[in-house]
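Re-running Cysteine dioxygenase family protein to confirm reproducibility after the cluster update. Everything else is unchanged from the original entry.
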Amino acid sequence: MQGYLSEERRGAVLRDLRTHEGTCSRDYLAAARNVLRELVAIPDLVQRLPLVRKPGGYARNLLAGNDAVSVWAMVWAEGATTSIHDHHCSCCFGVVSGTVSETWYRAVDAARAVPTEEHDRQAGYVACMLPTGPNIHRMQNRGRGEAISIHIYGFDHEAHSSSIETEYTAVAG
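Result of re-run:
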């Protein structure tokens, strides 16, 4: 599954993400931002990869991973949306192409959340957050055509199936 990037590029990405402080440090977030900025600056590199797509939804494509981090290309079909969720690990993402809308939420209780703000993330946008949250959000492709984003999570993809810790239901504020 990690055949999307060449072995050399995969090794360079994982090397650049390695810090002595671990994946919950400011050093790691700075390294992840730098990797994302490099990847979104050359969209042709990502767009020409043989990425899996999911009609009507989003598809996760593992680009690189080890026991500390996983790097995914997400291909968003028109209308694709995630659940409202929080992460158990650091979460960084950058938009390669298209527009991904991100809605932020505030928890009302352990299962419900209200929307607090919304932003359209254009190609070139990069953000990182630590799991010190809550960092509750939902991502959607509301635009025409597909969108592609790169996500770097501070978790071992072989030990966990997802970066999501808690899912919420939206309620009116």
